[in-house]
Amino acid sequence: MSFAVCAIALLCLVSVSCSTPLTCDDLVRPLDQVDLSHLEGGWALVAGTLMDPVYLERYKTRHSAMIKFSQASDNSSILMDRLFLFDDGCEYFASNFTLEGSSYTSKRSNLTVTFMQTSCPDCLLMRFVDSGKLRNMYLFSRRREVEQKDMEEFRAQSKCVKGLPPAMMDPTKELCPDRPSDQPALESQ
Question: From 3.20.20.450, 3.40.50.300, 2.40.128.20, 2.30.30.240, which CATH number describes the 22-167 domain?
Answer without folding.
Answer: 2.40.128.20
